[in-house]
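for the writeup, i need someone to sanity check this before i put it in the appendix. the sequnce is what the collaborator sent (i think, or maybe the updated version? ugh). structure was predicted straight from it, no edits. if anything looks off just tell me and ill rerun, i have time this weekend
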Amino acid sequence: MAGFNVRSVLVTGANRGIGLGLVKQLLGKSNPPEWVFATCRDPEGERVQELKTLASRHPNLAIIALEATNPASIKAAAARVEEHLKGSGLNLLINNAAIVRLSTLESETPEDMSLVYATNVTGPLLVSQAFLPLLKKAAQGSPQPGLSCSKAAIVNMSSEGGSITNLFAWQLGQVVSYRCSKAALNMLTKCQSLGYGGDGILSIAVHPGWVQTDMGSSPSQQAPLTVDMSVQGILNVLPTLSKKDNGAFVNWEGKVLPW
């Protein structure tokens, strides 16, 4: 993470898994961000205790309610972040919140297809729209040329399970709605790169690897990556990204993945 000096970061779905891992490692940097905004559906819920413990030790961590399928919740979160930033912009938005529903082609339902798409695709779209003014402000206020994650960036946490070419781990789980949502998220990332690049905002889709989380668990096989390994890789890759990577799909080691 050497050279990765980012002033403000927002991570959605930050109360567990990769989101929580990102928050921990960002706070543990020798030069931590001035603000780390950790969002989750219910800051008073049972599964937020670890975040609360972190917040008690790190005054630069703010826990904010954000439900990615609720436009009013997203707008309220953006207003709260703007208050904290006191006139400065948001440098890095990490759309990490996502859900999966176990399914096969035969068992997939319209309800799950709609819910997973709403959370995994429409959510990042709406969150990015709401925080766009703060991302633009960060880009405009930065002396850095070009595009970078420390200037202004949207990082969409995708999955190689959404790669039509690679179709990662089909034998372990078909999860059709999840795969379709991540393929769509990759297209959203490409669209954002075209729409926001001129404003100085980098957009990137990242596959974190197959990680030992609630979502990454498989009944038949243990995921090879710990959360710490994945997050450390991601935070090493982000500082290396620039204009040439805008709209790309990369993994936690920086390798470009096929669509």
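The helical segments are 17-27, 49-57, 71-85, 110-141, 176-196, 227-237. Strands lie at 8-11, 35-40, 61-65, 92-95, 153-157, 202-207, 249-251.
thx in advance!!
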